[in-house]
Specification:
Immunoglobulin-like, globular, disordered N terminus, 734 residues, twelve-stranded mixed sheet, single chain, five-stranded antiparallel sheet
């Protein structure tokens, strides 16, 4: 009988979930905080044997140490409910034996004890497991170290606090199923960040008073999670369920039990749902995993807000969340969309994103939502729409395109994110010294924009320069900021010896040493792009790379991914360690693209916002390297995967580095979003894990996961585009 069967025979565990909220884990703040540790608590446990965990300083080296050995080399424990309801095990004593000046002795209290994964606490060699998995426990002193293996198993039931255990619900769900349901989310082969929450298991079967059982299995792990299967709004987490079927929320205290097990193997997941009758229905089995790598930093993204709440400047002040919407409604009986930049802050898990700035100001600007500069070109207004955005490497400033990506306007504004103020970068443009947001406001806002500078920007490493794309050429632009005033001034065109005319999609690496861009062969005209030079629409695009420094871009660009017949490439970006470049490749589909009827961002294919054939690819930043399509991340055809961006951090998973890539996609999110005809789908933000070594072999991606709570009203999803992942997230004042 194997260890798992033995553990089942010894233990049938019943755990109520809220008691798991105090679950203690070993963790590292390098990967986005200590997920699973109560806020304000200290990860791991310090004792006379030194701190446990994935690192940290330990006791000083033992003088005279000649050898070190840990016993036993292998041990096993079975998890069970602790006094507070969290999982725990009988402590397992590991002994560190050292030869000190020729004398063999127990040095367990004098070495540093280190555990490779979250889920085990060790003090002076005494190890207590809090999650199932296979752990390597290492004793260290100076240059000496020795390791042992601890296997922790768990088989049992866990209950959501709202699940009624006093009636026959559990027995019904444990009975043999008599039909089928579909587990529509998570996706098969998905890998989740360790601190992502909330995660909803979504099933196609639903009904009043539905109940569900989620089963998770792997070697050493067999968990049944019992919960009500909800069909109504989840008002506490802003993720209502507008579709058919039902869903179960999987809290962190449950999913973090799977992290250590996932390091060695996938976990099979299946669901049972009972609504009426005599037996439940059961889903297919999928494979999922939770990486020992969390989300950190933050993501800013561009969003269209359908028919936002609004106030008129003439009749009422704009009090959050009411916008002014200075631009007129385009036509009778049409919905006017607002545009906004939202952001996630992963400092404390994954809370709901918040509004940073809109086309009519910000929620904490002074006064809030009280106007913003309109884009102009030769005194002709081009609208207040905010388009492409770029965040400085220190996280303090946002470069905004005003008027969308129209190639003739391309106005630039600079936002102080924390202070919620636009920087006065053009004071002489305003001719009325008494103008204000409420008095001669059109004159007042002139001082906060510079015309004809950029439809796209990317910041340099010192936060004082950007590379700007204007009319399909690239320029170095100097930015100076002194409090609430500053300047934005074009320095010079870059890459002047590059043999092609049309350049777009600039991306400057985080350390400033590399620069990638798109070089395209044919301008593509369409709505908002009357001359084909706005940089969004391009045919015959290829990816190029140049070296750079804090002073600017070197004129030594080389072809990174060659042009191919019948496809175009665009939107390249570089990982924070300069080891990878991710980009889009597209066949351009057919004109008009299937998505452009619903969103109206353009009316032509080969538009990065709308191109249904856009797919994600990855390549090493070495000219001549082979690019690999990310099939698992891309998913089904016509998903329109676009604007990929790397997380600022990475970590080890199953012996390899993994990176998180954020991108927009129109693939369905379970039963909640994009479940109707493809032409009506809205772009949503997804993230996918990508593993890589020195050589990329095969598809290195995993299936992606949806970023939670990205729509304030899930029944009315917003169009979410252009994720920009940053390492530093500043506090917004006000």
């Amino acid at each position: 009988m194997n260890a798992l069967k033995q553990s089942r025979a010894r233990l049938s565990t019943l755990v109520t979930l809220p008691l798991l909220a105090g679950l203690a884990v070993v963790c590292t703040t390098a990967y986005g905080g200590c997920a699973g540790v109560k806020p304000g608590s200290t990860p791991g446990t310090a004792g006379t044997g030194g701190p446990t965990g994935l690192g940290g300083s330990g006791p000083p080296p033992i003088n005279g140490l000649e050898s070190l050995d840990v016993t036993p080399k292998q041990a096993s424990v079975t998890l069970m409910p602790g006094a507070a309801g969290n999982l725990t095990s009988t402590p397992q004593q590991f002994t560190a034996t050292g030869s000190v000046n020729g004398v063999v002795m127990d040095v367990s209290a004098q070495v540093q004890w280190v555990v490779d994964l979250r889920g085990v606490n060790v003090v002076s060699g005494l190890a207590t497991a809090t999650a199932p998995g296979i752990y390597t426990i290492t004793a260290k002193s100076g240059n000496f170290q020795s390791s042992a293996t601890l296997t922790a198993t768990f088989s049992g039931a866990i209950f959501d606090p709202g699940f009624n255990q006093t009636n026959n619900n559990k027995t019904v769900l444990d009975s043999a199923p008599s039909g089928t349901t579909q587990l529509s989310y998570p996706l098969d082969k998905a890998v989740f960040p360790s601190n992502l929450t909330p995660i909803y298991a979504q099933m196609t079967t639903g009904g009043a008073n539905a109940i569900a059982r989620l089963n998770f299995q792997a070697t050493g792990l067999d968990v049944n999670y019992y919960a009500n299967c909800v069909t109504s709004d989840d008002t506490n987490n802003n993720d209502p369920f507008p579709g058919t079927g039902c869903y179960v929320k999987m809290p962190l205290s449950l999913t973090q039990l799977f992290i250590a097990t996932s390091e060695k193997q996938d976990i099979t997941m299946r669901a049972r749902v009972f609504t009426s009758g005599s037996a439940p229905v059961e889903s297919q089995t999928i494979n999922v995993a939770w990486a020992n790598v969390g989300l950190s930093g933050g993501i800013y993204y561009w969003s269209t807000i359908p028919n936002p709440p609004k106030a008129t400047q003439e009749n009422a002040p704009a009090t959050p969340p009411n916008y002014i919407l200075l631009d007129p409604q385009p036509a009778a009986n049409t919905t006017w969309n607002g545009t906004a930049i939202y952001r996630y802050d992963f400092t404390n898990g994954t809370p709901a994103p918040t509004v940073t700035w809109t086309d009519d100001g910000g929620p904490k600007s002074d006064p809030p939502y009280q106007g913003a500069p309109a884009a102009v070109n030769n005194n002709v207004g081009k609208g207040h729409c905010i388009g492409c955005h770029a965040i400085s490497n220190d996280g303090k400033y946002m470069a905004l395109t005003i008027g969308g990506s129209a190639s003739d306007a391309a106005n630039t504004a600079i936002l102080d994110i924390g202070q919620q103020n636009l920087i006065n970068i053009n004071p002489s443009a305003s001719t009325d010294p008494n103008s204000s947001p409420t008095s001669n406001w059109s004159d007042y806002w002139k001082r906060f924009r510079v015309e004809g500078t950029a439809a796209e920007n990317t910041w340099g490493p010192s936060n004082d320069k950007v590379v700007s794309m204007f009319r399909s050429k690239l320029y170095l632009t100097n930015v100076t900021i002194n409090g609430t005033t500053g300047t934005v001034s074009r320095a010079s065109q870059i890459l002047t010896t590059w043999p092609e005319l049309y350049l777009t999609d600039p991306f400057w690496s985080q350390d400033g040493s590399l620069f990638v861009f798109t070089s395209f062969a044919q301008p593509n005209t369409g709505l908002y792009n009357t001359d084909g030079l706005n940089g969004d629409m391009k045919k015959g695009g290829k990816i190029a790379i140049a070296t750079a420094s804090a002073a600017g871009i070197n004129d030594d660009a080389k072809e990174l991914v060659p042009r191919e017949s019948g496809v175009t490439m665009f939107y390249p970006s570089i990982s924070n360690d300069n080891k990878l470049v991710v980009f889009n490749k597209s066949t351009c589909g057919t004109d008009p693209d299937m998505y452009q009827k619903s969103d109206g961002y353009g009316n032509q294919s080969c538009d990065g916002y709308d191109d249904s054939s856009a797919t994600l690819w990855i390549v090493k930043p070495n000219p001549g390297a082979s690019a690999q399509r990310l099939d698992n991340a891309n998913g089904p055809a016509s998903s329109g995967n676009s604007w990929p961006r790397f997380s600022p951090d990475k970590g080890n998973f199953r012996g390899e580095l993994i990176y998180w890539i954020a991108f927009s996609s129109r693939r369905p999110y379970g039963q909640q979003v994009n479940t109707s005809a493809q032409a009506t789908n809205k772009p949503q933000l997804w993230i996918a894990a990508v593993r890589t070594g020195e050589v990329i072999v095969g598809d290195p991606s995993f299936a992606p996961v949806w970023l939670p709570t990205q729509n304030p009203k899930q029944a009315q999803p917003q169009g979410n585009h252009v994720p920009q992942w940053v390492k530093f997230v500043v506090v917004i004042e006000g």
